[in-house]
Amino acid sequence: MFLVGRGERIVPVGPPEPQHCPRCGEVTDFQPRLRYQYGSFDMLFGFTYGKRYELACPQCGHGWRLDTRTMERSLGRVPIPFRLRFGLLVLAGLMALLAAAWAFRHNG
Ligand SMILES: [Zn+2]
Question: Which parts pass through the membrane (predicted)?
C-alpha cells in the first residue's frame, strides 16, 4: 500500500523569551520555534519544505522570522526527523541500487 501524506509541524526550539508584543500591547513569553511543512510517501520516505525559524507571541501568533543559519548553529542540530530530512535521498539510493541490480541481471 502506498500512502502519501503531508502536513505542517511546529516544534518549540528553546526557552521562551519575554518580548513586547506590539499587537497585544504587553510583554509576553515569545516562543522560538521551527515551522516546517512536510510530505511523506508510505509513512517512510519524506521531504520537507517551507522551513523557517520564528519567534512568536503565544497569544496572537504575531512574530518574526529568525535567521536559519544562526538558529541551527546555536541549536547544534536540526529538529526534523531523519526520515523527513533525508528520506528522498534514501529513496533515490534504493532506486539506484534496484536499477543497478536489474541492469546486472539483464546484462549477464
Ligand atoms: Zn501578541
Answer: 86-104
Compute, in angstroms, the gap from residue 36 CA to the centroid of ligand 1.
21
| Element holding 75 (H helix, E strand) | helix 68-75
- For the chain, the domains span 4-107
- DSSP 8-state secondary structure symbol assigned to residue 11: E
Ligand 1 centroid – CA 33 distance (Å): 15
The predicted pLDDT at position 43 comes to 63
Give me 73's grid cell. Answer: 548553529
For 99, the enclosing helix (H) or strand (E) is helix 82-107
d(CA 97, CA 79): 29
Query: For residue 80, which amino acid is it?
Result: I
Residues near ion ligand 1 (CB < 5 Å) are 21, 23-24, 57, 59-60, 62
Ligand 1 centre distance from Cα of residue 34 (Å): 18
